[in-house]
Design brief:
The protein has about 550 residues and is an alpha/beta fold. It has 12 helices and 23 strands. The N terminus is likely disordered.
């Protein structure tokens, strides 16, 4: 999603001073025996810490001192799967209920010589009436023929949208899967409607799903960076401990504890989110050159150290100025979109454009300096760079999957080994398994889902895509979302997203002043924030000392 710059130079300066003061005292002054060098040094350190805390309070408010020490981490069993291993059921499209302009067409490539076409516009629909004997989890294959690769349609069950299916097979009817779909025994309507349609359908086939099991949630508490610092390891262990048992509440709010999002959610639900989403875009060299003054590092520090929360950072990476279109239609601040950039990542990563490569490295260096500030202040972060790549709308996705993976690996190596950033938990968000860089450089697999209006299903099919993307069990998160998912659906469907990250305007607020119920109704928001199966800020333990 597009990042909006907000600037407050005075706030940044005040907090930067406090942060610097704390960073200078973070390493302590003890000798190798753990004793203070002298009382004078101790007194000086204490005075500096008090001054820093007072500066923080003056800008952001009180520091949280009470933490949850009774979190229930007992097993929460998965919903049973009663479907037999050899189950298979086929439903022909020509026997389904057609809506709008859909028609049955002759096609010699179809199984029975017939298919359903003209599922193209609003009001068109294709509904399969299925009778299920067993309650459990199903993989549904929509055998289809698109007009072009990458065509996508929506799928609903009994009127509730549950996901999307993508058709890529050209010239022949091919597989298009929606996996890990939970169905109770009985009769159901499975309906296909247009999104980016022009797809003909032959039939659907239902089989037992074995994708999500107990092993899915048995993630090794070992980060990709073996040299991760103590605070980062503690946070990651906590995430592994709660995974499959709870979902952490999350929200993008670019002013941290001062944000309207936090205020409105707190006033409505009585709770505050656990995971704060922020953007590093303002630290891109292009952004700095155009006068950006970002508060992200300060907000991240405050959220972890003072509020006791968890930080997710993404990066809408504005293009280096030499490759920035920067005109009326594509101003510099939107140059993370492919339309605003003249970068050719394929040429860059195969060595044809060395100048652009160096500029990208300069940007990574600049961002790393900001992460070093957080590292030195003892702040771990969930780091989500190069997001939504396979969609192709950002310049880092306007390329081959191979070039994207090369850039990911270069960034990982540079930030981990050259800059020694021991405070990063790496979260991949490429949105397509072909763009997955490998288990050795990824700690969390995530997806961004914008479901439409008031859609609260678990998107279990997308969760299954995340499971299948990695070679070993990884934490799986909903890094961006429009609607907040119903926590009952998340748990019952065995699609237990580690956390969610609702985007801000317009998905949370309308005009920045009131909660926007066009996406998440207040009743569902209250349910999600007060569920026994979600964790809010007040329910987090002391993450700095978590064992």
């Amino acid at each position: 999603m597009k990042y909006t710059f907000k600037r407050n130079a005075l706030r940044t300066a005040a907090f930067a001073a406090a942060l610097s003061m704390l960073a200078l005292t973070a390493c302590g002054n003890g000798n190798e025996n753990g004793e203070n060098a002298n009382d004078a040094d101790t007194a000086q350190t204490t005075a500096a810490e008090i001054a820093a805390e007072n500066a923080i309070k003056a800008v952001y408010g009180e520091i949280r001192t009470e933490y949850n020490d009774s979190l229930d981490l007992s097993d929460y069993p998965l919903t049973a799967n009663e479907v037999p291993d050899d189950f298979k059921a086929v439903y022909e499209a020509e026997d389904a209920v057609l809506g709008g302009g859909c028609t049955v067409s002759d096609n010699v490539a179809a199984a029975n010589g017939k298919c359903v076409s003209n599922l193209n516009k609003e009001g068109d629909s294709l509904t399969f009436n299925v009778d299920i004997e067993y309650s459990g989890f199903y993989d549904v294959n929509f055998v289809s023929l698109p007009s072009d690769a990458g065509r996508v349609n929506y799928v609903a069950v009994d009127g509730e949208r549950v996901g999307e299916i993508q058709s890529d097979s050209l010239g022949i009817f091919g597989d298009s899967w929606l996996k890990n779909l939970h169905l109770e025994a009985g009769t159901h309507e499975i309906t296909v409607t247009p999104y980016w349609g022009y797809i003909s359908y032959d039939y659907i086939e239902l089989t037992k799903s074995n994708i999500v099991t107990d092993e899915t949630y048995a993630v090794k508490a070992a980060l990709s960076n073996p040299n991760a610092d103590e605070h980062t390891q503690s946070l990651y262990k906590f995430l592994c401990d709660v995974y499959g048992k709870y979902s952490l509440t999350g929200q993008f709010a670019d002013e941290g504890r001062q944000s309207s999002e936090l205020e409105k959610i707190r006033n409505e639900t009585g709770k505050e989110f656990a995971v704060l989403g922020l953007d590093m875009s303002g630290y891109s060299l292009c952004s700095v050159a155009n006068g950006s003054q970002s508060n992200t590092v300060e907000f991240a520090y405050d959220w972890y150290q003072n509020a006791g929360g968890i930080v997710q950072l993404c990066w809408h990476w504005t293009t280096p100025m030499d490759y920035c279109v920067n005109n009326k239609d594509n101003p510099w601040y939107s140059s993370f979109y492919k339309e605003g950039s003249n970068l050719d990542l394929d040429k860059i990563m195969n060595g044809e454009d060395e100048a652009a490569y160096q500029l990208l490295m300069d940007d990574i260096d600049a961002i790393s300096e900001q992460f070093a500030r957080l590292r030195d202040a003892g702040v771990p972060v969930i780091w989500r760079p190069l997001h939504e790549a396979s969609g192709g709308w950002f310049w880092w996705g306007n390329c081959s999957a191979e070039s994207y993976i090369k850039l990911w690996n270069v960034m990982y190596d540079k930030m981990t080994n050259e800059h020694n950033l021991t405070n990063l938990i790496w979260m991949w968000n490429g949105q397509d398994a072909e763009w997955y860089p490998g288990d050795e450089t990824v700690d969390i697999v995530s997806w961004d889902i914008y479901q439409g209006n008031n859609v609260y299903t678990s998107y279990s099919g997308t969760f299954a895509k995340c499971v299948e993307a990695s070679g070993e069990p990884k934490l799986i998160a909903l890094s961006e979302n429009g609607c907040v998912m119903d926590p009952d659906n998340v748990m019952n469907d065995n699609s237990r997203w580690l956390f969610w990250g609702t985007w801000s305007d317009p998905f949370t607020l309308k005009l920045g002043v009131v909660l926007n119920e066009e996406y998440t109704e207040k009743s569902l928001l209250n349910k999600a924030y007060n569920s026994d199966r979600t964790l809010t800020l007040d329910e987090l333990p002391d993450l700095k000392n978590y064992k």
